Amino acid sequence: MYKNKKVTSYDVAREAGVSQSAVSRVFRPGLSVSKKTRDKVMATANKMGYRPNAIARMLITKQSGMVAVIVSSRANENYPEVLSQVSKQLAARNKRVLLFTLDDAAGVDDLFEQIWTFQVDGVIALAAHFESQRLAQFEQHKVPVVLYNRNVPDASTNTVCCNHEQGIKQLLAELKLNNPQSYLVLSGPVDSDVANERREIALDLLKKSGEKNVQVLYGDYTYQSGRDCIAQWLKKNPAPDAVVCSNDTMAIGVIDEIRENHNIHIPNDMSVVGFDGIASSFWQSYQITTIKQPVEQLVKAAVDMLIEHIENADSPPEARVLTGTLIKGNSVKRS
Amino acid sequence: MYKNKKVTSYDVAREAGVSQSAVSRVFRPGLSVSKKTRDKVMATANKMGYRPNAIARMLITKQSGMVAVIVSSRANENYPEVLSQVSKQLAARNKRVLLFTLDDAAGVDDLFEQIWTFQVDGVIALAAHFESQRLAQFEQHKVPVVLYNRNVPDASTNTVCCNHEQGIKQLLAELKLNNPQSYLVLSGPVDSDVANERREIALDLLKKSGEKNVQVLYGDYTYQSGRDCIAQWLKKNPAPDAVVCSNDTMAIGVIDEIRENHNIHIPNDMSVVGFDGIASSFWQSYQITTIKQPVEQLVKAAVDMLIEHIENADSPPEARVLTGTLIKGNSVKRS
DNA sequence: CTGAAAGCGCTAACAC
DNA sequence: GTGTTAGCGCTTTCAG
């Protein structure tokens, strides 16, 4: 075995008695090489354990074949599923995932530095919040970007989003069947764009339908915050008839808190709805009424858009909105 | 703005009136440049929007600064936490994560091709199963690798693992307090090394302590498989006194199935234990007795080992085993 | 401390 | 169809 140093296309060429570019051609699909040379090259390449060096290729083709995927810690609980889909679907398009996790605003500068230096072909941002000046940088550096699960008002960015409005409308309609007199909206954190959007839509719709008794609390999307919020609220206030949570995880927290510490029956005395359709929302012990996001299709849309913009630098920005599915669970009374 | 093409170190050099290597030096930390040149270069670089091209750097330094992280779909439910930790801790060591997801054995060939061509500095495999010949390839290609949550008998590979034996010993001791007469071991899938290890350890320990009535069922680590297995079992058999699940998710499934369809009380009539300590195992409605994996420390160990082997090619293979924490939940009766 | 020069391993014209 | 040649953008000796 030739293990002492990395074997290059030159080494293979010499050994096979062909030119270096012949070797290169053999390993670039779709280039015309005679079967004879191809076989000869392949044979010696295998013998020598040769693998083309993607780095060198990137340098010359100016395509890294890598897509930066940014995951913020504020991401929904369904992000593992999303990430796995993203990885799978990008792989199918012959792109690799360069993963970045974003903890707090502090890391953003560094993150962007990395993105530029690594010459990624594109960026998919999962539920992260970026200032609009940040988004402008992508354009300056000519790096296509798709925001997943975000709805940016000014339509200069590619976005893919679940239809929050329609979803929340359906959830509220479901709640209305029981004619609730008081609502509690349990919002996600204010630094999450998705949370803000869901909250505002809910408040807006409730207002439009003339509801007077609507209160808002702020959690941070976690189970514990769901528990804490409702516990805190019930210390000084009567139980609301309906609780509208910005995600399933908080809804689960609410349900557990009620079960443990309060003599309130869900759904008979109180209705709870969530959002996302995460795996545990379907578990027997919770069975939350929620909107299931069409994750696979959302990711497909995101990947399609990104590839389109990578291949065609001046295609116009696009926003795609997909509709989720109402899941009628047992956290809202059914007649 | 100089936006028409990527600006290179030559462009900056020309503009700043210095040599190209001067620019290079400025952007390589720890190299001696006079403050005057440094300032001048920095200023024009910023003005022109210059960013060093990491690809070119990789080509010459033969270090990509990337670590391949392989996630298999068989990974435990705690993988999001693990992945997030891995990403964070590698970032702290100035490495980027190139993420690969592995669905089935079919993709392995392709995966390995990618790993070689992308010249990654190292590999962390999360709960994936590789044949030993595969592992040998890493050595041939001189790519350091750390297996996370695997215990390979032949000690020629770097591994980091939670102490399954001690954990399961503790869980069984906890169960013993109620003097169970019959055990059901609910194993994960046979193509998961972790699952096999946990099952065998449990069976072994039970045998050693003289238990006669021990049955085994095979799930696939999912919630639904937990439900299905126990439901199937109870159709034809009496309820076991103790159920030992290979992960928390299946334990949750067991609990939910029992709650919905059987008149059996947990923990009074039946005890259930899990493994992993995933977030939902602590939820009020489950509170599983389980072993919480020390994820942060496990990842730290993995990353430390990997970096060590990247920097020091001939450090010897190492296996680190960390001990988990027994969580005394409510799925086992407490006296 | 600085600049000149030689590549890293490969791709992409371009002749033959 | 194949070989020759000129780089991609950077790091790294090596003189000065």
Automatic annotation (TrEMBL), chains A, B:
<dbReference type="InterPro" id="IPR028082">
    <property type="entry name" value="Peripla_BP_I"/>
</dbReference>
<dbReference type="Pfam" id="PF00356">
    <property type="entry name" value="LacI"/>
</dbReference>
<dbReference type="InterPro" id="IPR046335">
    <property type="entry name" value="LacI/GalR-like_sensor"/>
</dbReference>
<dbReference type="InterPro" id="IPR000843">
    <property type="entry name" value="HTH_LacI"/>
</dbReference>
<keyword id="KW-0805">Transcription regulation</keyword>
<keyword id="KW-0804">Transcription</keyword>
<dbReference type="Pfam" id="PF13377">
    <property type="entry name" value="Peripla_BP_3"/>
</dbReference>
<keyword id="KW-0678">Repressor</keyword>
<feature type="domain" description="HTH lacI-type">
    <location>
        <begin position="7"/>
        <end position="61"/>
    </location>
</feature>
<keyword id="KW-0238">DNA-binding</keyword>
<protein>
    <submittedName>
        <fullName>LacI family transcriptional regulator</fullName>
    </submittedName>
</protein>
<dbReference type="InterPro" id="IPR010982">
    <property type="entry name" value="Lambda_DNA-bd_dom_sf"/>
</dbReference>
